[in-house]
Design a protein that fits this description.
Elements lengths: L3 H7 L6 E6 L4 E4 L1 H7 L3 H4 L9 H4 L8 H5 L9 E5 L4 E7 L8 E11 L5 E10 L1 H13 L2 H6 L4 E7 L4 E4 L3 H5 L3 H4 L13 H12 L4 E8 L5 E13 L2 E11 L1 H9 L4 H10 L3 E9 L5 E9 L1 H7 L3 H4 L4 H4 L8 H10 L3 E7 L4 E11 L2 E8 L1 H15 L9 H11 L7 E9 L1 H8 L1 H18 L5 E4 L4 E6 L4 H16 L2 E2 L2 E2 L1 E9 L6 H37 L5 H17 L4 H13 L9 H4 L7 H19 L8 H6 L20 H15 L11 H11 L6 H8 L1
Antiparallel strand pairs: 1-2, 1-6, 3-4, 4-5, 5-6, 7-8, 7-11, 9-10, 10-11, 12-13, 12-16, 14-15, 15-16, 17-19, 17-22, 18-19, 20-21
InterPro entries: Cyclic_di-GMP/3'3'-cGAMP_PDE, GGDEF_dom, HD/PDEase_dom, HD_GYP_dom, Nucleotide_cyclase, PAC, PAS, PAS-assoc_C
Keywords: Coiled coil
Pfam family, one: PAS_3
Length: 724
């Protein structure tokens, strides 16, 4: 973050030609290096707009690279090549025919935004460096190579970093494929330890040149782990920290095969043909066709390897010497301008493209072989693109519902806040009873509820509206150009869909809120907060209604499946009340006991009916599953305020007085009193009524059984009160 004054004071310290503009496109800074490059003095250009800064470079006003941050117009990229776009930095190359007294110059350009101390965009700055000498060296090198030698030179790039003491601080793992060393065997050592002795002097000289600011490359031999020399090519540039050079970062290319090819080129063309044919990537050689005005009008294929034929299905024999327009039945040759630029400038061209005819994605590297001839290397990247798209989709979508996720919502939420989108309505929604459904019927049923809700949201909104799942049971819908009234109609449709839907016989519930930004000066975050506030107010009522509905449905479900009949629960309630009165319990405890008698086995809803009603002896695994009903009942009761006060008693009603019960092995008076009462009443009722696996006892036999187990299974004092 920087102020205009700070920028003006410091820009002259930059070695590169540099200038800056404000948000209105006016030049606010123009350093001495820029004066030297263009011949335009600072006082002649400051406060001028309408792209005046571009005239010394291009002979006319036109937007510079830094305008991308001001105007957010990616059409500007068409003026540049070799673009490298990062979050707050764009690097590119271009050509000016007006610099250097009309001899022209190749330029390396870096643009970055300027922010003030409040992180507000105040303008942008552009740094420009003349790289004509480097480009000339690259051009001379390319002209000196033969076509197959150029192909090999594209392979095996390695990233490395060294400090100013020539010690390696990083090298990418692919070095092992070239030299046999693992990265850790090189990092920390001086790079000179790995240079072939005959090449050491030149390599050190190149290192010193780059450190002092000269962009340079060199070719030398590196000694492999087994002692063999291997040819590599290195280039490097400064690593800057706090304005100082702290090291070099560069690329190593394995050119060993190229060097061997150079040595053997005259001996056998067949060897290079074999290399050409056996490359995994498709390679095709073009000849450009020019008109009398030296403008490219078409190109034809003069050679192609078998990998290209395999990738594209285009027959080698049928394609040779065919114009591309004839071969593909096209009116205009694809990429003709780009190919012409490569031929005339010797600057390689790389693009990732989709071929509709083949339904495949390709990365295409095009470079000049000699005047009028180009080589294009085709790498099939369809699988990579598919994977990238899957990753991109997963990173912004909820895997269960297919809706956008919180990450996407947070990314797009600021973008919708635009005057062209007014009015903007925000709907927030929360599915009621999701946790209760999950704990009662399992997450599959809960997932069904989430997917149903997602389907409804997608059904009632427009295609371009944003629907996101931002939490477990929370959703947000962003509606551009939608009034409050229109949003309320959407809510009515959502509510109607939920009112008509049941899962496991349970009527679904949803809490919804909505708020609308009508005027540009309203804060979108406050609109979201207002929508959430309305939703939570609605949830206070809707959640209670949903819970009551779920619990009532569960009870009906229990009765309909004959897992626990209403008559059985009524009998237990009657017996329990009789015991409670003999124990002189107060009215509130008796009322709590009645509810417990009704709900004590609510957890059985989660146990398969085939196990609950099985007439044969249960297996050990089935017995363990039966025992889970107390814990499941506890979870269900805990989530409903109307039942939470009996959750502990539900959990404990199968504990034993002697501590041998379940699930916690409580003993004696550690067991809640009401649970001990229910245990006696439940046992007596089960013994005196028929079950799927046992005929009823007589009342006398049941009382004897209770008496025999008093002090072991049952509280002896409660049994004594019951016997009276």
């Amino acid at each position: 973050m920087i102020s205009k004054k700070h920028l003006t004071d410091n820009i002259n310290f930059f070695f590169d030609a540099s200038f800056a503009i404000d948000k209105d496109g006016k030049v606010i800074a123009w350093n001495k290096a820029m004066e030297e490059m263009t011949g335009i003095k600072r006082e002649e250009i400051i406060n001028k707009d309408n792209y005046s800064y571009a005239v010394p470079f291009y002979g006319k006003p036109r937007p510079g690279l830094l305008e991308v941050f001001i105007k957010n117009n990616e059409d500007i990229y068409s003026y540049y090549r070799n673009l490298n776009i990062e979050k707050n930095k764009i690097i590119a190359e271009t050509y000016s025919e007006f610099l250097n007294a009309g001899q022209g110059a190749h330029l390396w350009v870096v643009a970055t935004p300027l922010y003030n101390e409040n992180k507000e965009l105040i303008g942008a700055i552009e740094f420009i460096r003349d790289i004509s000498e480097i480009k000339q060296l690259e051009t001379d090198l390319k002209k000196s190579n033969e076509k197959y030698r150029n192909l090999v030179e594209q392979l095996n790039e390695i990233i490395y970093e060294i400090d100013l003491n020539a010690r390696v601080t990083y090298i990418s793992p692919i070095i092992e494929h070239i030299a046999g060393y693992k990265p850790e065997e090189i990092i920390g050592h001086r790079f000179t330890d790995f240079v072939y002795h005959d090449d050491l002097e030149e390599r050190m000289a190149q290192f010193q040149r780059v450190v002092t600011g000269v962009q340079d490359y060199t070719e030398y031999r590196m000694v492999t782990k087994i002692g063999n020399p291997v040819w590599i090519r290195t280039s490097a540039k400064h690593i800057m920290k706090n304005g100082k050079v702290v090291g070099l970062r560069g690329i190593i290319c394995n050119i060993n095969d190229r060097k061997k090819a150079e040595q053997n080129l005259q001996k056998s063309e067949e060897k290079f043909r074999a290399l050409f044919e056996n490359m995994q990537d498709g390679v095709i050689i073009y000849e450009l066709l020019y008109d009398e005005n030296n403008n490219a009008i078409d190109y034809k294929i003069i050679d192609a390897n078998s990998a290209f034929e395999k990738q594209t299905g285009i027959s080698h024999n049928k394609s040779i010497n065919k114009k591309i327009t004839e071969l593909l039945n096209l009116e205009n040759a694809p990429y003709l301008k780009e190919y012409e630029q490569v031929d005339k400038t010797n600057i390689p061209y790389t693009i990732e493209t989709y071929c509709k005819l083949l339904n495949r994605h390709f990365k295409m590297d095009v470079f000049s072989i000699k005047s009028g001839q180009l080589a294009a290397v085709f790498e099939d990247i369809s699988e990579r693109k598919k994977t990238e798209e899957q990753i991109r989709h997963l990173s912004y979508h909820d895997n269960l519902t297919g809706l956008y996720n919180r990450s996407y919502f947070e990314k797009e939420f600021p973008n919708i806040d635009n005057a062209t989108n007014l009015p903007i309505s925000i709907i927030t929604a929360d599915l009621n009873g999701l946790k209760l459904l999950n704990d009662t019927f399992g997450h599959i049923i809960g997932d069904d509820l989430l997917k149903f809700g997602a389907d409804i949201f997608k059904k009632v909104v427009r295609k371009d509206d944003i629907v996101a799942r931002v939490g477990g049971d929370e959703f947000v819908i962003l509606l551009s150009n939608t009034s409050q009234k229109a949003a309320e109609k959407i809510i009515d449709r959502i509510q109607a869909e939920f009112d008509n839907k049941q899962i496991k016989g349970i009527k679904l519930g949803i809490s919804i809120g909505a708020a609308t930004k009508t005027y540009e000066n309203e804060n979108i975050q406050q609109i979201l907060a207002l929508s959430e506030e309305k939703m939570y107010k609605n949830k206070l009522y809707e959640s209670k209604k949903t819970r009551e509905n779920i619990i009532q449905t569960l009870l009906e479900f229990l009765n309909n499946k004959n897992i626990e009949s209403k008559e059985h629960c009524d009998r237990i309630a009657k017996l329990s009340v009789q015991i409670a009165k003999k124990l002189n319990l107060h009215k509130e405890q008796i009322e709590k006991l009645k509810l417990l008698a009704t709900m004590h086995d609510i957890g059985n809803i989660t146990i398969p009916e085939s196990i609950l009603n099985k007439p044969e002896k249960l297996t050990e695994k089935e017995s363990e599953q039966i025992k889970k009903h107390v814990e499941n009942g506890y979870k269900i009761a805990s989530m409903a305020p109307e039942m939470s006060h009996i959750a502990e008693e539900i959990l404990s009603h199968h504990e034993r007085w002697d501590g041998l019960g379940y699930p916690r092995g409580l003993k004696g008076e550690e067991i809640p009193l009401l649970s001990r009462i229910i245990a006696v009443a439940d046992a007596y009722d089960v013994m005196t009524n028929d079950t799927p696996y046992r005929k009823a006892m007589t009342k006398h036999q049941a009382l004897e059984e209770l008496s025999a187990n008093a002090g072991t299974q049952f509280d002896p004092y409660i049994v004594e009160a019951f016997l009276k």
